[in-house]
Amino acid sequence: MSQQQRTMAGGSATTDIKVDILLVDDDPAKRFALKATLAPLGQNVIEAASGPDALRQLLKQDFAVILLDVRMPGMDGFETAGLIRQRPRSEVTPIIFVTAFDRAEVDMGRGYDLGAVDFVFAPVVPAIMRAKVTVFVELYRAQQELRRYRTQLERLVQERTTALTAINRELEAFSYSVSHDLRAPLLSFNTLNQSLLADYGDSLEPRAKDHLERMRLASERMASVFDGLQMLFRLTSGEIHREQCDLSAMASEIVDEMCAADPGRKVEVTIAEGMTASADPRLVRIMLTNLISNAWKFTGKGPAPRVEIGTEIVDGSTRMFVRDNGVGFDMIYAHKLFGAFQRLHSQSEFPGGGIGLATVRRIVNRHGGRAWAEGAVGEGATFYFVF
């Protein structure tokens, strides 16, 4: 059974790995007695005969706990503790002061200010000393295990990142192929089809003309699919450049453009003021354009189309939304809304490439956010997003 398996089977983390304990005292007899007291724990006890000796040991390795005598010639325990705390690697190493002084003679406040976790006064009770040290030994083991798992996780993330980078490169190559190797012949076919209709349309039989027209529409839909794929591929590459974006102003500009492009439509549009977000302005504009276009399209058959762009605060968090009173959708199909080329309505009823909402989710995901929708058939839909 492997070390990891032993740990998972019920043992404490890395229980068969010895840890190091630093014992600092200028009296060899006291060091011998303390080492004998700690021997049943089965750990590595490293001895230091003075404060400078202890600092030299700390330069070599880390320790689970330091047992430090208060009274030592030259550099006492408090001075040693102060220097130990100045080293980044030992600034949180537990220190237990061990002293033969009476409690009244020891400045315990100073010791705790220097980072002491406990004081042990002579005569030392072996069982109590072992119990105190065991706590920090187990804590150190747990910290080491967490470091090991973190290292494994970082390595796994690096491996996954490398794999994803390779996949993205393949996708970019595929996007190039779609753009140049597949789309170009399709456009040539469509151009030839249109030329045939223009030059010979009047002399063709109605059935032949209808076939050519169907072929033209099919090629245009295929070209739209290719354009949608390229859009999705572009959204997966490049870095996010966040800045504070005025979503209210951006939405207003998009609505103005739609009104200008479709002057015959009369849509009541409400845009909340002061909507802002830290996001990539280019991507957010694409996202908002798709959401507003979606609402604009699916309110096209209603008598009094209405679109609202605003924010809500739910459970203390702010979420933005685009809401309409259009045809809506059945919530049982909500999971299909944001899929590429997934449609809940026929092409003849509501034309489109089936890529808009997939683009929305891709952009929101790249910002580390979430997008979802709520609606009902005949009662409109609301599309939410948070960054």
Describe the structure.
The chain has 387 residues and is an alpha/beta fold. It folds into 3 domains: 3-124, 3-Layer(aba) Sandwich (Rossmann fold); 167-236; 243-386, Heat Shock Protein 90 (2-Layer Sandwich), CATH 3.30.565.10. It has 10 helices and 12 strands. The chain is elongated, with a radius of gyration of 36 Å. It starts with a helix and ends with a strand.
Task: Give the topology.
Blueprint: H1 3-8, E1 20-24, H2 28-38, E2 44-48, H3 51-60, E3 65-69, H4 77-86, E4 95-99, H5 108-113, E5 116-121, H6 126-200, H7 206-236, E6 243-246, H8 247-261, E7 268-271, E8 276-279, H9 281-298, E9 306-314, E10 317-324, H10 356-366, E11 370-375, E12 381-386
Parallel strand pairs: 1-2, 1-3, 3-4, 4-5, 7-9
Antiparallel strand pairs: 6-8, 9-10, 10-12, 11-12
Helix pairs in contact: 3-4, 6-7, 7-10, 8-9, 9-10
